[in-house]
Amino acid sequence: MKKLSEKKLNSLLKFWQKKLLLNDWNLSIKIVEFKRKDYRQSGDIKVFPQKMKAVVLLTNNPFRDEESVLVHELVHLVLWDYDIFCEKLALANSKTKFKGKHGKYMDKLESTVDHLTKAFLKNQ
User: How many domains does the structure of the chain reveal?
Assistant: First the structure.
């Protein structure tokens, strides 16, 4: 997989920030090495809602389309308030963090984000 330059990634970030109506957010990209050994991670997002700031983390060793990963993480930001609200409910009704209702919630969240990501990319 061809790695995109930071300049290209930042250009895509600005494009998708506007397209997803996130103009009031201070967004940036950080290229990182994910340390998890049990899971090959392509991206993540760190959100600071009080500051209207978010940092999209992308792997330094991309194995998926980087634009798709970027949009996926930005969709998480679009859904952030809803996600936090629902996750608290799921955790309150689940015995462990990754099983039961919380695990089902996380699976449904990811499938929803994946679906929306594909729709946005198809209709750009």
Answer: 1
